[in-house]
Amino acid sequence: MEGSSSVPPSSSTISRTALLVLRVLTFVFLLIALILISINKGTEQVNGDHYKIKFNDLRTYRYMIATIVIGFAYNLFQMALSTFNVVSGKRLISGDFGYLLDFYGDKMTSYLLATGAAAGFGATMDVHSAFSDLIGLPFDSFFEKANASASLLFIGFLFTATASVFTSYALPKKP
Description:
Strand order of the largest sheet: 1-2
Shape: elongated
Structural class: mainly alpha
Strand content: 5-15%
Number of helices: 4
């Protein structure tokens, strides 16, 4: 086809689109992690007695939820900015401040998500072991769901950390 020429998209368009995709993926994984941990509860029966546990009985899981909510809110804000950027080709927050906000926000949020996931993994292993070995109440289903939520949170961290690499490329170059 001689008359038609296809121009490849610019690297800037690809970066903006990739960043939006990373933010959408982060949003999805954090949402599922939040739902999974916030509805998590377990019941065990021993000698006719019922024992119950909920996510908010353990401080570590409350911390995990806090990191998810903060990451979720930041990511929702960034999704709106990224969507505007992809659709219009313009930045809503222009200048050095906008680029620095993206970069440092992504860095801080990714570190926060990483600590939430690590806390969730650690608590799940230690508390599950203590419940099983010392008390004789395994609560297997409860801890499996908590571990799944921590895993999704960790995946959210990976997407946010990758987004911070993209935002680092856009940082203003100062001599």
